[in-house]
Amino acid sequence: RLGEYEAAEVLIDLHNALELAGLTDRQCEAIRLVYFEDLTQVEAGKRMGIGQDAVFKHIDAAANKLADIYYYWAGHDEGYSTGGRING
Predict the structure, then answer these.
(1) How far apart are CA 63 and CA 27, in angstroms?
(2) pLDDT of amino acid 8
(3) CB of 23 within 8 A of CB of 16?
(4) The RNA polymerase sigma-70 region domain covers which part of the protein (predicted)?
(5) What is the domain range of residue 66?
(6) What pLDDT score does 54 carry?
(7) pTM for this structure?
(8) What is d(CA 36, CA 69) in angstroms, rounded to the nearest whole number?
(9) Does residue 86 lie in a domain region?
(10) Which portions of the chain are predicted below pLDDT 50?
(11) Looking at the domain assignment, is residue 87 inside a domain?
């Protein structure tokens, strides 16, 4: 049961980070399609009307914004460590 509780906490934190990160609509869409609907970047690009390279850029920018949230939380004793991230 402890593992289920910890997994739920991670999902809640991810949901909060997604809300706080200030992602664009396109970044949210790319994240949703690739990580929640399990599409490839090529398939996501077809749905979004863009190329795989643009999907990659949206995901990369979103990942950086999310990392900044977790980095902030780590610096404010919110249960995360910096893990070597140098500059946000």
Answers:
(1) 9
(2) 86
(3) no
(4) 20-66
(5) 2-75
(6) 99
(7) 0.76
(8) 20
(9) no
(10) 85-88
(11) no
